[in-house]
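Re: the 191-residue chain
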Amino acid sequence: MQRLRCQPSPATAFTLLELLLALSLGLLLCGVIVQGLLAEGRNSQRFGRHLRERQSQWRSLELVRHDVRQSTAAEAGPGDATATCGLAGRTAVLQLQAAQGRITYSVGAAPSAIWRGRVLMRCGPAFGLYGELSSGDAQSRVVIDGLPRDGAGFTARLDGRGGLELTLRQAFDLAEGRTQDLESKLTVAAP
């Protein structure tokens, strides 16, 4: 009988240099993936803010449209800025005359620190339970905040065809030092 002898074959292994190279490439790939995920998170956050603020802009413009429809006269621009409540240094941009009283929309500094940047304010009769204008005292309320520091955040312009063009702009600072601008426009039949 013959005996079989097993001789170990020479082992093939990675060298230290090959292991370090593979580890470096793996870490580099992980870093690229993490950067991509972080960028996607920032884009998602920006898009979410864009949708929320766009919805706020449309609600604000609908409020102005509602006031215009209930008014008997409209004056775009500062005009005769005799608001029923104090403007506190803000600039009147739209004035409406309704049966219940005068409604003035103004743009300027926020009344308190809870608001972002400049604001659009509404000064006029309050709303009743069903959305109608009440005949009580005039109230001054913030309609929307985040208007740009420079330029007009809200403009109202009478066009030549009997319409009132409303433009609302907002600007928000992003983490990267850039700003995100949003603009909505609406045309309403002038009273």
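The radius of gyration is 31 Å.
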